[in-house]
Every structure is written in structure tokens, then in C-alpha cells.
Amino acid sequence: MNPLAVLSAKEMRAAEQAAINGGVASAALMETAGKQVAEVAKQEWSKRPVAVICGPGNNGGDGFVAARLLAEAEWPVKVVRVCDRETLKGDAKLMADLYEGEVSEFDANALAGVGLIIDAIFGTGLTRPIEGDVKTALEAINAHPAPVLSVDIPSGVSTDEGAVLGFAIQAARTVTFHAKQPAHLLFPGRALCGVVDVVDIGITGEFDAKIFENHPSLWGARFPRPSWMGHKYERGHVMCVSGGPMSTGAARLAAEGALRIGAGLVTMLSPSAAAPVHASHLTSIMLREANTADEIAGHMQDAEKSNLVTIIGPATGVSEQTRDKTLAILNSSAGAVLDADALTSFAGQPDALFDVLRPDDVLTPHTGEFSRLFSVEMKDGGKLDAARAASKKAGCIVVLKGPDTIIAAPDGLAIINSNAPPDLATAGSGDVLAGLIAGLKAQGMGGFEAAAAGVWFHGACGQTIGPGLIAEDLPKAVPSVLRQLLKPLQEQDDGLTSQQGAQQQ
Ligand SMILES: NC(=O)C1=CN([C@@H]2O[C@H](COP(=O)(O)OP(=O)(O)OC[C@H]3O[C@@H](n4cnc5c(N)ncnc54)[C@H](OP(=O)(O)O)[C@@H]3O)[C@@H](O)[C@H]2O)[C@@H](O)CC1
Ligand SMILES: Nc1ncnc2c1ncn2[C@@H]1O[C@H](COP(=O)(O)OP(=O)(O)O)[C@@H](O)[C@H]1O
Ligand SMILES: [K+]
């Protein structure tokens, strides 16, 4: 299975069942899961008194295995149950029976003197909000100074959404099995996991995953590189629609993003009143006047000369005019990246937009713009489903931005980004992202891959700059990230070329 695949709770159960159908005993899977938890505890912490807190299901079963193996390694172990003994069944009961030490019920003294807490209370089987005695136990765990190692997922976090159901454990580290689940990548779940270890427990076989964690190995093979004999017209053309004279910076940031990521030509389409402002700033980016939707449509005819992608939205203003200009782009043969005001201009009449979007067009809303356009209230943990549903509804690629940006395609495929530092939460950074995506799309990447690559690049540039980042820095960081990304790909190519040479000799 692709190591970047992200599985839902249902898919995890299906993968587990497929392994069992293939001849692996379910108790063997639990034994390996508990063993891996004990191994991580031993690797990460010195020997110390450990409390293993076990819940009523198989997550608790993993806890009993870890407790047995840590006790065998002569760790001082205390097992604490947060359920009635009678509720344990199947493999969890088997593992509880195999544990020979004392098991107590959770009370005020349960955590006295411990230096590590293993949270095996709830995993993928959490079905309702945490309350009552269980909540009291979780609160006591979070209030205790010892670090927490969570089994599979911090108890209280919903696997498929990453939302807190009532109350949740704050872990220092989380050991999960076979593949990550959405909650390991989506906030607030991601922050509650601490460091995530994905460990093998013997589940093999292919799985038709629909969700992936963003990484160059998903799209690196299609990442554009200039060819020896190439010229600028082969590297695509990005046009960027500017706002009025007092709102020109956002469009320039987008244009610079597109140029830096390798678009052969970038042209600013500016209202006449704003053209002198752009003229005093732009050098390698070309400038043309375009005041009306008809004039924008005229410029879109350049799509016949080279692969043209047009960005509209960054500081273009929320207006009927922006709506008409957007429709002019979508009714031409130019590709489109729609951001900010181009999206909000269709709030209240989204069908006028959805009716003309094409499958490869890209929308890049932040959660506010998303809520306005798709008329959904964003709630914690609802992001993945919301982005996938929106993509299907709009019939194009949707990039729902934030610390855990989702890239969704109408066929249900989705990528969750995980490399963006919080320094990116600064004015204009989203404008640069629109430019990066458009620049990659103009160079021939499909909308979904261009969006995933652009979002990853944006995060990598953010990391390169770090604290103090302003949006203007992002395009300048592109060359060093490009160098890092393309070097391993170049080495692969060189290896291939020398092998071919050796074969020919
Ligand atoms: N998939 C795999 O490959 C492998 C999975 N493995 C492990 O199995 C784990 C999943 O196990 P699981 O399905 O038994 O669910 P789990 O999370 O233990 O909890 C279910 C129990 O909690 C209860 N309950 C729920 N919500 C509650 C609440 N708010 N407050 C109170 N009670 C609540 C619920 O009760 P019910 O809803 O039925 O009333 C039920 O009794 C998975 O995370 C991993 O650790 C590994 O062993 C091996 C390979
Ligand atoms: N806390 C955060 N951590 C990481 N990235 C973030 C965070 N907040 C915002 N971002 C990223 O910063 C960019 C902000 O874009 P946007 O909200 O459109 O701002 P602007 O319109 O000012 O450009 C998006 O790419 C988003 O994913
Ligand atoms: K847990």
C-alpha cells in the first residue's frame, strides 16, 4: 500500500478484516500492536513507573499487551481500567486474562508516582462524546505532569474528523497501526497526537485508498522541469487579473509566485487606472490593460498560442464586475485558478459559477470564503468531508486552506497537507499560493497535482524562511526549495541515463 495512504476508521477495520481473512489471527494483530507500543515506550523513555489506562474495547486490549510486555522487561507497571471488567470481550478479554499483574479501577490515586501514562482507553471505536467518570479520568491524565503515549489515537479524538468529542487526551506521542488516519493530520486532532509513529502490525495487501498525506512522491514524477531545447513559450503563460489602483499588491504576489515556480510568461491584466502602479513595480512580468469582462475575454485568446492559466480574485473586489470577469475566463479556453474575491462574488448565487467550472479548474478558498460560497458552517473536524463534498458539487478541484489544507477532487480523491508552518498565516501568503498553483498548471500539471504540489511548495517555502516571514519572501524562497526538490529527481534521471549509456556500449 502507498505509505502516504490515509485510512478512515471503516477502512482500517476493512484492512484488518482482509488480513484476518488472509489467515492472520486477530489476536496476533493485537499482540503485535501492543508489542509495538511497548517498543516505542522503551525507545523514547527510560525505564520508569508506567500506568497503562485501558478502555472497554480493543484499544484497551492493545494496552493489556503493552502492559504485559513492559512488565516482562521489568518496568514497574500499573494497569488501570476505565470500564467494568465484564464489558471486555473477544481479543481484549483474552489479553486482559493474559495479564498477570494487578488491575485497579481509576480513582484519585491511580496516577500517583507514575512517569509515563499509556492511553489505551478509546481508539477507532469512539462513538459518542466523552462524559461522566471517563471524562474525569481523562481530565486527571491531562492534569498529570507525566508524558502520555496514546495507542492509535488520543482518546476522545474522532478518527475520521480529528475533532474532540467532549474531551480529549493531549499526548506527547501517538503510536498508530498500518496507516495514518485523518485525525493524525487534521486539527485539532493533529495537535493532540504529538509525534506520530506509524508501525507495521502485519497487515498486508493492496487497499484502494482515497485519501493521502501530501508529499512529493505523489506528484514529483510529473513536476515540470525545463528541457534543454525548450523555450519560454513551452513553459506556459499565467495571466493575473488585478484590482484597482489602491489594491494592486495581491495580484503582484500571485504573479511573482507563478513566475518563480517556472511559468515561461506572466502577464498582469490591470485596470487602466492601476497600470501606472504596476508599471513602477514590474520588470519581468508583462503588463496589459483590461478594464472590462470583454477586454479580459480578448486577452484569453492568447490561450491559442501557449498553455494559458488565469488567476482572478486576489484583491479584485467583491462585485458584479469581478463576477463577469471570472465568467469571461471560464467561458474561454484558458485554465483558471479562482481565489478570494472571485469566490465571494458568487456567494448567494453559486450555481452561476458551478455551472461553468471545468474539472481541472482550481478554487482556493480559506474557510471564510468556503463557507460563503458553499453555504456551509465550518466546524472543527468537518474540513475533509466538506472539501470533498464541495469539490463534487463545484465539479472542480477545491483547495480548502488552513494549517491542514485539503486538496479535493470531484471523484473523491483528497490530499491532506502537513508541512505548512504557522508563519504562513500572514497577509498575502494565500495570493502567492494561487500563483504557485497557476504556474504549475500552466507548465502542464493537471489541476489536482498542481494544487497539491503548489500547497506543498508553499509549506516548504514557509519552512525555509521561518519566523519573520512576510508574503513577499515566499516567491524568493522558491529557488532553494526547487533545488532541494529537483536534486533527487535529477539524480534519478542521471542514474537512468548512465544505465542506458552502459547498456548501449
Ligand atoms: N484496525 C486494526 O487493524 C487493529 C485495531 N486494533 C485496536 O483496536 C482499536 C479499535 O477497537 P474497538 O473497535 O474495539 O474500539 P475502541 O476504540 O477500543 O472502543 C470501543 C469501546 O468503547 C466504547 N465507547 C465508545 N465511545 C465511548 C464513550 N464516549 N464513552 C464510553 N464508552 C465508549 C464502546 O462502547 P459501545 O459504543 O459499544 O457502547 C466500545 O466498548 C483500535 O483503535 C486499535 O487500538 C489493534 O488491536 C489491532 C489491529
Ligand atoms: N496556522 C497556519 N499554519 C499553516 N498555514 C497556515 C495557517 N494559517 C493559514 N495558513 C496558510 O496561509 C495561507 C493564507 O491564505 P489566505 O487566508 O488566503 O490569506 P491572504 O488572503 O492574506 O493571502 C493559506 O495557504 C493557508 O493554508
Ligand atoms: K487511545
UniProtKB/TrEMBL annotation:
Source superkingdom: Bacteria
Record key words, sorted: ATP-binding, Isomerase, Lyase, Metal-binding, Multifunctional enzyme, NAD, NADP, Nucleotide-binding, Potassium
Residues in YjeF C-terminal domain copies: 215-485
Lyase recorded as keyword: yes
Presence of the UniProt keyword Lipoprotein in the record: no
Residues that, per the record, bind AMP: K401, G402, P403, D404, T405, G430
UniProt cofactor note: Binds 1 potassium ion per subunit.
Any coiled-coil regions, as ranges: none
GO MF: ADP-dependent NAD(P)H-hydrate dehydratase activity; ATP binding; metal ion binding; NAD(P)HX epimerase activity
GO BP annotations listed: metabolite repair; nicotinamide nucleotide metabolic process
Gene3D superfamilies reported in the protein's UniProt record: 3.40.1190.20, YjeF N-terminal domain
Family per record: Belongs to the NnrD/CARKD family.
Subunit structure: Homotetramer.
Function: Bifunctional enzyme that catalyzes the epimerization of the S- and R-forms of NAD(P)HX and the dehydration of the S-form of NAD(P)HX at the expense of ADP, which is converted to AMP. This allows the repair of both epimers of NAD(P)HX, a damaged form of NAD(P)H that is a result of enzymatic or heat-dependent hydration. Catalyzes the epimerization of the S- and R-forms of NAD(P)HX, a damaged form of NAD(P)H that is a result of enzymatic or heat-dependent hydration. This is a prerequisite for the S-specific NAD(P)H-hydrate dehydratase to allow the repair of both epimers of NAD(P)HX.
Full protein name: Bifunctional NAD(P)H-hydrate repair enzyme
Organism: Hyphococcus flavus
